[in-house]
Amino acid sequence: MQVTETLSEGLKRELKVVIPAKDMEAQMNVRLADAKDKVRINGFRPGKVPLAHLKKTYGKSIMAELVNEIVRERPTQILSDRGEKSATQPSISMTEDEAEADKILSAQADFEFNIAYEVIPPIELKPTSGIKVTREVVEVSEDEVNEQILKIAESARSYETKKGKAAEGDRVTMNYLGKVDGEAFDGGAAEDAELVIGSNRFIPGFEDQLVGVKAGDEKVITVTFPTEYPAANLAGKEATFDITVKDVAAAAELEINDDLASKLGLESADKLKEIVRSQIEGQYGSVTRQKVKRQILDQLDELYKFDSPQGLVDAEFENIWRQINTDLAQSGKTFADEDTTEEEARAEYTKLAERRVRLGLVLSEIGEKAGVEVTEEEMQRALYAQLQQFPGQQKEILDFFRNTPGASASLRAPIFEEKVIDKLLSEVDVTDKTVSKEELMADDEEEGAEKPAKKAASKKKAAAKADDASEGEEAAPKKKAAPKKKAAEDSAE
């Protein structure tokens, strides 16, 4: 086998591989000899089929198998021998001329093919001792724990029938019938429907008009459905609801005690507080880690400057661009609405893609040199988490990961990345700083309010959104469509 480099331009490489016809024929003869005792051909005793007859009958099919095996396996070996790593799957090309292909399969011509790829650039790791980060820590107060418990406990709150008029916080039990232009509409009626005034479960204006009603009252409520309401036949329309009040009940006081804990399925108030405190700390801890991670990645971005494989950058850009256009389409906006142009946005998100790829390569090199590994148990946990997100689709998801090349990498990559970040946190200079929850969340809330295209021009904001190269951005929460039987309820329930 002869390998000749035909292109070396930046990170791009092209190789010409030639395997002499005699070598291909020799490999074919070995396989024919192995098949000699196994094939059954009429007119010949087992094991007595002449090699020439076998070659005539099976030669081309065996050569075709050899060609497929060579183009599938040899590129990896060739790159390994050259001490190179391909950034993406190498591109293989060979003759498409049928006459030439026939000569190759007949062992009358050398087998030639070309390999085109981009190499992963060599990365010389730099000391991490100069990296300094501030880890913001929030101390969870007893008041915050109690406040969160009371929010959770709303589902366990009891109500007692009261005399008199309904007020904010009271529960109204009623029958209602919704009409548009005097005609009842599907999903606009219910009996014995319960609604807590102030819960904002129904469309704007509905609950406010229940203040002051009493059991036995009949009333007509007039409201206007939001323009973005999921049901197109109701969106933006004025509607009336004929209301018959069945009961008005006042909310009982919530007290954090063992009885409340029992209603929530726990053995004691102390255990309830312990769990809620842990949940709050976990939420703050997640934000803290992301902010620390951003600081590390920002400083790595300053330390490492090199050209990234264009194929990886293009693929990353397409992922980002697809999400940006999806977000704009869902919000009904354009690039002009976000004070930018498509050209400017493309330029900024190309820089973002380059950063993501470069940092991904750096983290990969750091992890590889440090011997960071993802265990089978960690992969199984990640797969289980995927299955939990899509109940009822477990079989399809399992088949996808079993049968899709590279699919498991989507599970491995974020785990590997977080383990590398853990390693870096053990090496860099970390200073803890106690802050309020408002200070901790301020930057994230500001970034969450930014529009994707408009703020692409801000390097700091764009970089912050690139901090997790494996997991990507989280989509903004979407409003759910209201069930038909509760068309009067706001779809943002």
Which keywords apply here?
45% helix; 4-stranded antiparallel beta sheet; 493 residues; Trigger_fac_C_sf; 11 strands; alpha+beta; 13 helices; single chain; elongated; disordered C terminus; Trigger factor, domain 2; Alpha-Beta Plaits; 18% strand; Chitinase A, domain 3
Distance between the first and last residues' Cα = 67 Å
CATH topology of the largest domain: Trigger factor, domain 2
Instruction: Tell me the β content.
Output: 15-25%
Mean pLDDT: 85
* Structural class assignment: alpha+beta
- CATH domain class of the largest domain: Mainly Alpha
Number of E-state strands: 11
Largest sheet report = 5 strands, antiparallel
What is the CA-based Rg, rounded?
33 Å
Classify the oligomer: single chain
Low-pLDDT sequence parts = 445-493
Please, how many domains? Answer: 3
CATH A-level architecture of the largest domain: Orthogonal Bundle
* C-alpha geometry: elongated
What does this structure look like?
The chain is 45% helix and 18% strand. With 493 residues, it is an alpha+beta fold. It has 3 domains: 2-118, Trigger factor ribosome-binding domain (Alpha-Beta Plaits); 158-253 and 475-493, Chitinase A, domain 3 (Roll); 279-465, Orthogonal Bundle (Trigger factor, domain 2). Strands 6, 7, 8, 9 and 10 form a 5-stranded antiparallel β-sheet that branches. A hairpin with a 2-residue loop joins β1 and β2 (12-19). The longest helix has 35 residues, at 269-303. The protein is elongated and about 105 Å long. Its main location: cytoplasm.
